[in-house]
Design brief:
The chain has 98 residues and is of the alpha+beta class. Helix content is 51%, strand content 23%. The protein has helices spanning 9-18, 20-32, 60-71, 83-97, and strands at 2-6, 36-42, 45-51, 74-77. Strands 2-3-1-4 form a four-stranded antiparallel beta sheet. Helix 2 packs antiparallel against helix 3. The chain starts with a strand and ends with a helix. 13% of the residues are buried.
């Protein structure tokens, strides 16, 4: 799951006015093919939360850098599971416990 906070209001405003903000977000959405994406205010600024399946951690720079460089975002990426993944993980753990 990715959370991005567009803390640099001036940079985000410029990106919005120039049309670059929606371009960056559309490119990110196409790249991630998310299960869900939410956009709204958080901590006094623009933000988004995107749930996606990261198959390879080496893709992290291609995900994060446009947000950093073009939108001045502060981001967090953390692993999360859906309910099916949780069931599978718990079953595997229970098998290990013997």
């Amino acid at each position: 799951m990715l959370r991005a906070h567009l803390d640099d209001i001036r940079l985000a405003n410029e990106a919005l006015a120039s049309g670059r903000l929606p371009e960056v977000m559309e490119s990110l959405m196409a790249k991630l093919n998310p299960e869900a994406a939410y956009f709204g205010p958080s901590q006094g600024g623009r933000s988004c939360t995107i749930v996606f399946d990261m198959q390879d951690s080496s893709t992290l720079p291609t995900i994060a850098e446009p947000l950093f460089q073009e939108l001045g975002a502060r981001i967090e990426i953390q692993p999360v599971m859906n309910a099916d993944d949780m069931r599978k993980g718990i079953a595997a753990w229970q098998q290990q416990q013997g």
